[in-house]
């Protein structure tokens, strides 16, 4: 059995390879280059032994996949999940290569995971697991080598443990080894708003191109957590009319516009957007009602596979900007493309978090810290210029394809060009 068989049979990995092949076909890349790109440069598996509070010992398996470093050090989160596999980890690391390439930041792609249900561990056990995982991969990571960050069930506290463990091993404060750290340890407070802010920037730039600007345009947002609520907040600040938001409790809709800050307060206090009451607000109990509303823009910002063959024909919006990962199924994507609805894909629209991570990492390495305003202004400048580069390249070279497919092609092309320049292929 080859090491590659650890991931080759995984369905998530196969999906990632499928997308790579689609991009390669558009770019006319030969199979031998696809073969280079479909494997990670390095994949390690580590064993983590935790002494439990009750005196027993528990063994966990973790991975770090370093997919491609042509554009810079590997970058990508670490997730704790009882369903984690080597295949999923490799696939996610490949997606990070394309996402970072498309975001125009000098990073390659990496991803880590530990197969664990973190809810079964006490806080002390979780700390031990985190420190031991990072110690086990410590020789493969570093500020110039591979820079992890949070993902599912990891957070700034986890990053603080990783940073401390690594710093003890190398003997100095290695600020740049992880990002999304707490502000006290070199993180940026603006990190919390950055993905939603980036999604709002995507809406703003796409609205300039296809809707004649953002001012007065109506927006509906599916999901009102970290990404959805900050996207709503900035869009309202910049002149759009956020008329509907949803969470698992349902939808609140006011054609005259919601008071976003008030909805945020209600959500914070009661856990449900449907407790918001103001003006002529209508409440729907199904969160999916958000997709059929008469609006200009929809921002899916909750979970995957919510725009499907079953509800795609209800959509009246002309523009969809994906805050969530994978909210549109491939069938729905094709229907939207045929109907002329513009879908700004997740890989482009939700990169605000990783771009802010790059700003944090740059700060750490320079030893100077930006204020929130400066960091957000930097994010705005980088993402706006990058969005427009991608839009222009799409229109010039790949217009017959949906923007998602074009985005993959642009991302893969940038990586392949870097590999050629370096003499790797
Ligand atoms: P979150 O947990 O803060 O918020 C999720 C929101 O979606 C909540 O309001 C929840 O009520 C709602 N929700 C969940 N399931 C739903 C359903 N079936 N129907 C309607 N609403 C539902 O999560 P988040 O960090 O905002 O992430 C949202 C999406 O954005 C995810 O797909 C995530 O992978 C993606 N994303 C997040 C970041 C980030 O920095 N937070 C970065 C990139 C991508």
In short:
This protein is an alpha/beta fold.
Tell me about this structure.
- The strands form two sheets. The protein has a seven-stranded mixed beta sheet with strand order 9-8-7-6-10-11-12, with helices on both faces.
- Helices cover 46% and strands 17% of the residues.
- By secondary structure, the chain is of the alpha/beta class.
- The chain has two domains: 171 residues, Rossmann fold (3-Layer(aba) Sandwich); 158 residues, Rossmann fold.
- The protein is built from 14 helices and twelve strands.
- The radius of gyration is 21 Å and the shape is globular.
- Helix 2 runs parallel beside helix 4 and helix 7 crosses helix 12.
- Bound molecules: nicotinamide-adenine-dinucleotide.
- Nicotinamide-adenine-dinucleotide (NAD) binds next to helix 8 and strand 7.
Mean pLDDT metric: 96
Order of helices and strands: HHHEEEHEHEHHEHEEHEEEHEHHHH
Number of strands: 12
Q: What is the CATH homologous superfamily assignment of the largest domain? A: Leucine Dehydrogenase, chain A, domain 1
Describe the largest sheet: 7 strands, mixed
Proportion of beta-strand residues = 15-25%
**Helix coverage percent of residues?**
40-55%
**Number of separate helices:** 14
Structural class: alpha/beta
- Under CATH, the topology of the largest domain can be stated as Rossmann fold
Strand order of the largest sheet: 9-8-7-6-10-11-12
Shape-level CATH architecture of the largest domain: 3-Layer(aba) Sandwich
Shape: globular
């Amino acid at each position: 059995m080859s090491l590659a068989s650890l991931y080759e049979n995984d369905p998530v990995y196969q999906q990632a390879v499928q997308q790579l092949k689609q991009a390669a076909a558009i770019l006319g890349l030969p199979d031998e280059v696809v073969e280079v790109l479909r494997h990670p440069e390095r994949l390690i598996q580590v064993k983590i032994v935790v002494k439990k509070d009750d005196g027993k010992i528990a063994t966990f398996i973790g991975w770090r996949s370093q997919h491609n470093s042509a554009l810079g050090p590997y970058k990508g989160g670490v997730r704790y999940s009882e369903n984690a596999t080597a295949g999923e980890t490799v696939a996610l690391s490949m997606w990070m290569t394309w996402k970072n390439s498309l975001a125009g930041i000098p990073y390659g792609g990496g991803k880590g995971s530990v197969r664990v249900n973190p809810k079964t561990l006490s806080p002390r056990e979780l700390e031990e697991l985190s420190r031991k995982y990072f110690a086990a991969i410590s020789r493969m990571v570093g500020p110039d080598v591979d820079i992890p960050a949070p993902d599912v069930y990891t957070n700034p506290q986890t990053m603080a443990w990783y940073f401390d463990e690594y710093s003890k091993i190398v003997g100095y404060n290695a600020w740049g080894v992880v990002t999304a750290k707490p502000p006290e340890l070199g993180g940026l407070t603006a990190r919390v708003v950055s993905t939603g802010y980036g999604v709002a920037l995507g809406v703003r730039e796409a609205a300039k191109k296809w809707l004649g600007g953002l001012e007065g345009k109506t927006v509906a947002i599916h999901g009102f957590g970290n990404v959805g609520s900050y996207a709503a907040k900035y869009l309202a600040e910049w002149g759009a009319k956020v008329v509907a938001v949803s969470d698992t409790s349902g939808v609140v809709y006011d054609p005259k516009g919601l008071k976003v800050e008030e909805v945020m307060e209600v959500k914070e206090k009661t856990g449900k957007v449907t407790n918001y009451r103001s003006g002529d607000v209508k409440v729907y109990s199904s969160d999916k009602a958000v997709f059929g509303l008469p609006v200009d823009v929809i921002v899916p910002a909750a979970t995957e596979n919510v725009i499907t063959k079953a509800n795609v024909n209800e959509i009246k919006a002309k523009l969809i900007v994906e805050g969530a990962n994978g909210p549109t199924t491939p069938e729905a994507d094709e229907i939207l493309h045929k109907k002329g609805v513009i879908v700004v894909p997740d890989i482009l629209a939700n990169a605000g978090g990783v771009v802010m991570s790059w700003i944090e990492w740059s700060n750490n390495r320079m030893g100077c810290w930006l204020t929130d305003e400066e960091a957000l202004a930097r994010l705005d400048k980088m993402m706006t210029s990058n969005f427009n580069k991608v839009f222009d390249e799409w229109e010039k070279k790949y217009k017959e394809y949906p923007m998602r497919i074009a985005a993959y092609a642009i991302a893969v092309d940038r990586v392949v060009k870097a590999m050629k320049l370096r003499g790797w292929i």
